[in-house]
Amino acid sequence: MIENPKPQYAQIAELLRARIEDGTYEAGAVLPSEDRLAEELGVSRVTVNRAVGLLRSSGDVRVKRGVGTTIRTLPQIHRDASARYAARGEGAGAGEVEVRKLNLKSRTDYRRIGQAEPPAAVAKVLGLGAGEPSLLRSRVLYANDEPTQIADSYLPWSVTKDSESLTQPDAGPGGSYGRLAELGVGPVRFTEDVTVRTPTEAEQRTLGLDAAQPVFQIWHVAYTASDRPIEVCIHVMPGYLWTLRYGWDDGPAPDAG
Amino acid sequence: MIENPKPQYAQIAELLRARIEDGTYEAGAVLPSEDRLAEELGVSRVTVNRAVGLLRSSGDVRVKRGVGTTIRTLPQIHRDASARYAARGEGAGAGEVEVRKLNLKSRTDYRRIGQAEPPAAVAKVLGLGAGEPSLLRSRVLYANDEPTQIADSYLPWSVTKDSESLTQPDAGPGGSYGRLAELGVGPVRFTEDVTVRTPTEAEQRTLGLDAAQPVFQIWHVAYTASDRPIEVCIHVMPGYLWTLRYGWDDGPAPDAG
């Protein structure tokens, strides 16, 4: 089968990507207008528009309201699942490990900590009865002041109600898992279900995405030594920004929970 | 902050999705034309077009050339990373485990098996010198005759050159890992790097996707007992079709390889 020649807009996208990579267009700078690019490159404005659309999907550029189309500033962030949770005793919250490794400035904004009715699917995993509340710890993480993920962590209220620390942004040494361990329900095993989807309107605003930019959704479940699901954390992350790393040794399949 | 009301096209997308879920529009059927939907729902054709665009991104419908916009036929497929490789001794190839579990008909088409120059990044992981070839086993997997993934597996030619079985579609008991074990380089540890991106033109054709539908790319690396990377397999999978499941026990971070 003969390969189709690459369509013109894809060729233009490649050319613009090369200019981003070689620094002709600097990180954070505003891309020349589509009219100017069309004139310079001798193609139609429609072709340039489709090319820029590809660059938006791939995260190479984004549209900043009131500014224009700007060049990507953050590098690809590697999230090593087991390493990030193993690092939780070392000062940084698990969520900040990857970002600091890249010498980026990390920040976590807690937007809500308190009692909340969990989504039905979360209640089911946590084994909560009808109307039984959870403690929600909802946060947005940043690298160099750009949003990198939303993380909503749900814990059974019946377990957390006596822990003052768990209602604070800084839950103390070892983070919230440290407090759960003190309560006798420390997590020792984890599963993550990874899906990809388009972002909701609210997520688009929070993460600075447009509707065409897919997000990873990670459904992280932590289990105690007696295999009780003790936390569900839902991570929503711009797809173009992250590489998710998992590793395992061969052997019998672990119980899928 | 007050939430924006949901835009009209998003409301229309929700309505159409509800009709798919309740069976008003059956799996595999052709969606009514955008003109007819616009008339029935009392909105503009542009609004219907944007709504259908959302359904395409989410995989609820797809455009079949010469047929029209058709309703999704395959359910979400769960891929449990450690379970799928643990199951490789049980007759089915690792790649077919998830699909059979859903009582779907699985099929693997080998489109190429033979000596090939690996991509530079693959050669680097496998420790191949300049110009050193690999054995490529390239296949497309199907469920009920719909393509579900492309899997390109690269092995060092120097290791595989004496194995007749590895050049066959059916590599024998335990698949290609069984043969590697007989050669003294059986995989015992794995890492996977998961990214999401838009599909290339060739991938769009092979997987029946359009440019706006993101794909998972899984970069699967298998290591021997002496920690030699012995295989790189690159999986490209329609994002809307898959949930990726990983699990691990707490402990020190494994060496990231």
What is the compact description of this entry?
With 257 residues, the first copy, chain A, is α+β, with helices and mostly antiparallel strands. Helix content of chain A is 28%, strand content 32%. The termini of chain A are far apart.
Q: What is the strand content of chain A?
A: 25-35%
Query: How many domains make up the coordinates of chain A?
Result: 2
What would you give as the CATH superfamily of the largest domain in chain A? Chorismate lyase-like
Work out the helicity level of chain A.
25-40%
Structural classification of chain A = alpha+beta
Distance between the termini of chain A: 45 Å
Query: Quick one: CATH class of the largest domain in chain A?
Result: Alpha Beta
> Average pLDDT across residues of chain A?
89
Q: List SSEs of chain A in N-to-C order.
A: HHHEEEHHEHEEHHEHEEE
Summarize the helices and strands and which ones pair or pack.
Two copies of one chain form a homodimer.
Chain A: H1 8-21, H2 34-41, H3 45-57, E1 61-64, E2 68-71, E3 77-80, H4 81-86, H5 97-101, E4 106-116, H6 120-126, E5 134-143, E6 146-156, H7 157-160, H8 175-182, E7 187-197, H9 201-207, E8 215-224, E9 229-238, E10 242-249
Parallel strand pairs in A: 3-10
Antiparallel strand pairs in A: 1-2, 4-5, 5-6, 6-9, 7-8, 8-9
